[in-house]
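1st attempt posting a full record on here, be nice pls
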Amino acid sequence: MQKNGFTLIELLAVILILGIIAVITVPTIVGVLNDSRESLNENQKQQIVSAARNWGVNNLSENGGKVYYNGSEKKYITIKELQDSGYLDDKTIKDLTDDGTVSSSTRVCISYQDYQYVYEYDGAC
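the predicted structure (as tokens):
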């Protein structure tokens, strides 16, 4: 008698092996993707703070520990202001961890401590 095809047991064994491989690999892949998204978000935050620093170098002054811009005290700058002044690309910034967008009114706080300007992303200004 000639055997054509696979038996049901052989097919179930292959499906079981593929299922085990999927159970092992899927959580790892999901973890790598989540780590990548968090890393990209951190890089975006660093770029925004870097843009604020560049803006600050050209526009800020300090007197008595307070930060001034065009003669008035300045405690923060928004993403919108950075985009309008050309220090940050004028595009929608995505929050990759929750698939939302970062508001253009998000602030970078500016302070003057220990003889240097300090920039904090979305801090409590």
